[in-house]
Amino acid sequence: MKKIVFIIASTLLIVACNNLKDNEFLISGTANGVENGKKVFVEIQTETGSLAKDTAVVKDGKFELKGITDGIDIGFIRIENEEINLPIILEEGKIEINIVKDSLHKSTLGGTPNNEKFHTFNLETRAISEKVVKFEKDNGPAMQKAQMSKDTVTINKLLKEYKKFQNEMNDYSKKFIKENPDAYLSVLLLENFLMRQYLTPEEVKTYFNGLSKEIQDTKSGKKIKTALDALNAVVVGKPAPNFSAPSPDGKTISLKESLGKVTIIDFWASWCGPCRAENPNVVALYNEFHPQGLNIIGVSLDKDATKWKDAIAKDGLVWPHVSNLKFWEDPIAKQYNVQSIPATFILDAKGVIVAKDLRGDALRAKVKELLAIK
């Protein structure tokens, strides 16, 4: 009789724990060191910014969040007025998180398969992360001083040492992707590799093809597919895809009508510091070689028309400009798989891509070569 009662009780417990709708998640959390009454948010990133899926209040060091997720997605746990923004994988089931406010690296995550793997990855890479933090703390002032004095020997030495940690992390990440084809973290790591160009498109494709179909079909998986398709369309040796968009005065300008003997497609934005710093060099290049046939078309990732127009005027960018004012969701940026700016594509007289992302002397030399100027 006792055995039967135990079985019934266990069954009821299982049913209670799994009493979730399809695609529903339940986050059961503890927040050590966080005072009662603080709001806790679970957020996702959308095209327009952060979106809260649910909000709760910390009570006796605990909180609970619920929501529906459209497939597996990456989310973030944020606490009101605290420097806490912890990644979490949103998927159907009960997710458990233990936040340690004063030592975030000691926070734990689990409960669902993907969060268990995410936590394991964090544990395995913690030593590398700690070495990076120590290196930055120990060498930050020296790097800053070297940059101020333009001490390239010191800069290159420190960057070489830093890259060792980066390579160590990348090697472990690649190993994780190979060994975990059904983990959502694998596709997130691969997306990061593609965005930061740590792997070639062919390498990304090989790793991607090794992932399970379920993971390939997630939101991040579809992003990688789209990016790889775009990369195939904008490789050196292929014609640059045509595009058209509004100019600052509201007219529609196309790439096709902007072609010269040499054309530079320049992706930039008013808010991009490196872009603005590079603009004087681009202006000088244009002024020197435009009479010989150099054209430039600027594609801005701005979202504020006034700031875009003011930057064009202030920096003296006299060539044609277009923008859809959609920030990183700009369709031209997606068409050309632009993951960071500044980004440039250099075209010959036929509109064929002959080089990408050249700067300074290298860009000037390529323009001279294409214009047959000795």
Automatic annotation (TrEMBL):
Pfam families: AhpC-TSA, DUF4369
Cellular localisation: Cell envelope
Annotated Thioredoxin domain residues: 234-374
GO terms for biological process, alphabetical: cytochrome complex assembly
Molecular functions (GO terms): antioxidant activity; oxidoreductase activity
Keyword annotations of the record: Cytochrome c-type biogenesis, Disulfide bond, Redox-active center
Keyword Repeat: no
An annotated GO cellular component: cell envelope
Signal peptide: none
Highest taxon of the lineage: Bacteria
Protein name: Peroxiredoxin
Phylogenetic classification of the source organism: Bacteria, Pseudomonadati, Bacteroidota, Flavobacteriia, Flavobacteriales
